[in-house]
Amino acid sequence: MFAQIRHRLLWMLPVLGVISILTFGLQKLTPGDPVWMALQAEGISPTPLNTRQSKEAYQRKRHDLRLDLPLFYFTLSHQASCDTLFRVITVEDRTWIAQLLQETASPEIILQFYAVLLHQEEIWEQNPSPQSFRFRNYCRQIRGLSYSSLQKISSLFNQITNSKALKLTDLPASFPIWKFYLPSLKWEGTQNQYHQWISRLLRGDWGVSWTDGRPVMTKIPEALTWTIGLNTLTLLLAWLISLPAGVWAARHQGSWAERTFSGAGFLLYALPGFWVATLLTLTFANPDVLLWLPASGLHAMDYSSDWPAYKKIMDLGAHLALPVVTYTYASIAFLSAQINNAVHQELSKDYIRTARAKGLPEGTVVWKHALRNSSLPLITLTGQMLPGLISGSLILENIFSIPGMGQLMWKALSEKDFPVLVACFILTGMLTMLGMLLADLAYDRADPRIGSKEKK
Amino acid sequence: MKKGIYRWALGWIGICAVISILAPIIATQTPWRIIYNNQNYYPLVYDLTGWGRVIPDASLQLDWHQLGQENLWMAPISFDPTRPDHSESETNSKHWLGKDEAGRDIASQLIHGTRTALGIGIGACLISVFLGLILGGLAGYLGDRGWMASRAQLLLGIFGMLLGIFYIFFTPFLTLLELDVPWILNGLLSVGIFTVFPILGIKFANVFHYFPFWKKTIHIPIDFIISRLIEIKHAFPTLFLVLAIMAIIPGGEGWLAIILGITGWTPFARLIRAEMLQIKTLDYMTAGKALGYSPGRLLFKHAIPNALGPVWSMVGFSIAGAILAESALSFIRDDPDQISWGAILASARHHPEAWGLAVWPGLALFFTLYAFQLLGEAARNKWNPRMRNIP
User: Tens place of pLDDT for every residue, chain A, 456 residues?
Assistant: First the structure.
């Protein structure tokens, strides 16, 4: 038993590793500049990077986030690639230089050009005058130009600014394009973004949210409480209702009442949850139809913490009534059909006939013998329902504005709040796996045959 | 009674399929036929196919109704799903189910939403079945000890794979091709490059077999790898995964179908794997092996066709799942530019007084999901009678 748990837990590590790589890749592929987002969260206004101060703040933040490092343990690229591109500070410049490299396949020349450009800008910045201001403006405008257009304007630009920065005219006309087709694999060691990021997470430093500056580790537990609480409530309610219903249906399988019940369950299961939620709010929380219940949120407008306990509970109950109904109805339909099927299969077996022949009361036969034996697959099913329930939370929490993981994740996703998103992803992944592990363990415990098969 | 309801489901899906194929014809602002200066024109035919004559007066495109009612033959639902109609008069043509807040016709959106739903549902399911068949088939058929390779083959195969990845993603080669080659050719070329290099690597490995160290064979645990892959996929709640991928990839219905297909292959793979474990032990497979058939022929000509039956029992549920995911996603994204049942439902939340916004798309969605699930149930009763009555 314990060996098996250890085995399974150990196997979760590589799975979590893959999840972390996926999350990291997602973070890197999403457009947007993380440094700006982080600066914004700290309240530093990310004005265009033209003052020395904002540039330095930007650079410092970039170093703090370890974004001035290569991406991964190794870099697969072509021979004409530039292995110091990630050191270029701003995103705009980085894409511009990358585009120039793509055109020319000559990193040395382009980087030299860029260095001279930066140097020249610095000189102008240190000697402020109307003229130097104008020159710096020119330099901002040439960013984004392609190599051929740079070449065209370079002599003019040199004349205007009286500098030797843009000596692109004496470049060769043909470039070593063949370099694009020779691969290069470079080992980067631990000084890479992924390693730094994941070791920071492992140390427990999950960062602060980019939208409100609160630490991620205070935001997540609040949200997690709601999601776990509501889903546990859902599962409990679903089991409480569908167990007697399913057993009853199994005992009367074939009768018209059972057929109607099963058909209705099937129909209920096909109802999309978000439609039911919309209809329920439009009916019971609509000033034009019936205003029995609040439409969304968790507390009334005039909620105060010194209300008596019964009033608080009433308030919460009223707010949770519609969500709980929408959360549970599909689970009830699903579970009762499963129980119906499992118990019915069991009831047709020989040992049940023996038990009945012994003269055991029908209640004991069904509830003690048949149900216990048919509970095995039902345990696994409960585990397998978890990912679906959590996916459902994403939609339903947003409809009813319940501050759970679903809403948190949706907000983080639409605001590109990556520290929160990363935590949400890894935690939901971990919780789902743990839930399924628990279900599997319960299954093994209930059925000794499975365990022995594993050992072999 | 049961037979009747299955027939109803088939009928409903048939109607939906016809509607989604005909959507650009039956719900459009462009008239079928007009009479202009005593001559016949067919603007819709011209728009869709390019056949026929151009209408000389371009200003007509803005408002066909200036021609007068008697010169116009409009579609039954004479509105585009995206173009708002701000005219107050109801004389020209009627909004059968009303308008949404932007003035767009709901009936037209419903019709075009059918197209979105069915297209994404069936497209995603096809991709899932394809992936599930290949991966599940390999996992079940080869198992953990079914595929052996020498150390040299393994090393050079991985090396070839890296080279393939390099030539697809890291050279401007294919981005150059993207300019004038249709995407399907580009995709085929990418897949070709990706397979050619590992094969070359494995062939080249024979040279190294001179050294005993490199010749030593090892088992490649395909089953183990694919099972772990399924486990990883299961750890992510699907909707989160899809939403996250949608954040990177530019939108569009084709992409959504591909993403839903890629996230939905695991149930098929599990089913095929279990089926394959059983088929592997059957006599005709042993006979095939004894006759010296190649593993590829045994797998693709004998084993997989026999495992296909149970796959049918899951297709209905898979399509229903993809349609539900699509509508849920467009519901939560609440993007007014999307034409989908979920998007109409989302606009119902802002307008509690307009009950039609909530009822019609919801009913359409519900009936479609129900019909596909019923068909799935029917197929399962046929192929797998043990699992009766389970949604």
Answer: 678 788 878 878 887 888 888 888 888 887 777 888 788 777 776 555 556 777 778 888 888 888 888 888 888 777 877 777 777 777 788 888 888 887 777 888 888 888 888 888 888 888 888 888 888 888 888 888 888 788 777 777 777 666 665 565 556 666 777 777 788 888 888 888 899 989 988 998 888 888 888 889 888 988 989 988 999 899 899 999 999 999 999 988 889 999 999 989 989 988 999 999 999 988 888 777 777 778 777 777 777 777 888 888 888 888 888 999 999 998 999 999 989 988 888 888 898 899 989 988 888 888 888 888 887 778 877 877 877 888 888 889 988 889 988 899 888 888 888 888 888 888 888 887 887 788 777 777 766 665 444 443
Nearest residue to B120 (alpha-carbon basis) of B270, B20, B269: B20
Query: Are A5 and A441 within 8 A, CB to CB?
Result: yes
For residue A197, count CB atoms less than 10 angstroms from its CB and return exposed for 0-12, middle for 13-18, buried for 19 or more.
buried
Residue A26 and residue A429: Cα distance in Å, rounded? 15
Are A402 and A230 contacting, i.e. CB atoms less than 8 angstroms apart? yes
What distance in Å separates the CA atoms of residue A293 and residue A286, rounded to the nearest whole number?
Answer: 9
Strand partners, B217: B150
- The residue behind tokens 């003690």 is A368
The answer to whether the CB of A441 falls within 8 A of the CB of A379 is no
DSSP state of B16: H
Which residues are B219's β-sheet partners?
B148
Q: Using an 8 Å CB-CB cutoff, list chain A residues near B236.
A: 19, 387, 425, 428-429, 432
- Tell me the C-alpha distance between A1 and A7, whole Å: 10
Contacts of B172 in chain A (CB under 8 A): 102, 180
User: What DSSP state is assigned to residue A177?
Assistant: G
Q: In terms of CA atoms, which chain A residue is nearest residue B326?
A: A272
> Is B390 within 8 Å of chain A by CB?
yes
Q: How far apart are alpha carbons B143 and B224 in whole angstroms?
A: 8
| CB within 8 Å of chain B, chain A residues 77-96 | 77-78
Q: Are A337 and B391 in contact (CB under 8 A)?
A: yes
Q: Does B177 touch chain A (CB under 8 A)?
A: no
Q: Please state the separation of Cα A112 from the chain's center in Å.
A: 41
A117 vs B147: CA distance, rounded Å: 57
The total number of residues shown for chain B amounts to 391
The distance of Cα A259 from the centroid of its chain, to the nearest Å, equals: 41
CB contact at 8 A, B289 and B203: no
Q: DSSP of A416-452, one letter per residue? A: T-HHHHHHHHHHHHHHHHHHHHHHHHHHHHH-HHHHH
Q: Strand (E) positions, A121-258? A: 183-187
Residue ranges of alpha helices (H) inside chain B are 2-26, 43-49, 106-142, 151-169, 172-177, 183-204, 212-215, 222-235, 238-248, 253-263, 266-279, 283-290, 295-297, 304-333, 341-350, 355-383
Which residues on chain B are in Cβ contact (under 8 Å) with A407? none
Cα–Cα dist B121/B369, whole Å: 10
